[in-house]
Structures are given as C-alpha cells and as structure tokens.
User: Which sequence fits this backbone?
C-alpha cells in the first residue's frame, strides 16, 4: 500500500486545499477593549458564537443567513 499523500502533493500546483478555518481567519477571534486608564483589576470576557459568516460557509449551510442569525448566542 502506498503511503498517504495530501491532495496538495498529489496534484501539485493545480489544486489548493482550503479549509473552513481559512474563511473565518479574516476576522480576528477576539477583540480587546480597554479604557484610557485601568482603575480596578477586572477582566470581563463574553464569548459568543459571533456573526461573521463567509459566503462559502453560507453556501454549505442548511440554514439561510437570517435563520443562522436567529440561532446565535447573542447574550
């Protein structure tokens, strides 16, 4: 049995392997906001699902853009 070779090696130069993560990498995963001066030692973190949906992701999704927005963790 031949060893595994990724697609990029099997089809050199004619095929670019692209992952879904690359579509989302154009928007940073987090944002740091701070005041002009730190007065108390406090860190507030509010993770949520976000709202950046690349076109390729939407094309593969079963839900449309509005349905996906309604399913977000907004709070």
Assistant:
């Amino acid at each position: 049995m031949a060893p595994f070779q990724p697609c990029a090696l099997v089809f050199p130069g004619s095929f670019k392997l692209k992952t879904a993560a690359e579509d989302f990498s154009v928007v940073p995963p987090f944002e740091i906001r701070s005041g002009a001066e730190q007065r108390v030692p406090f860190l507030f973190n509010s993770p949520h699902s976000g709202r950046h949906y690349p076109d390729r992701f939407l094309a593969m999704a079963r839900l449309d853009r509005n349905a996906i927005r309604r399913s977000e963790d907004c709070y």
In short: The radius of gyration is 20 Å. The longest helix spans residues 55-60. The CA atoms of residues 2 and 29 lie 39 Å apart.
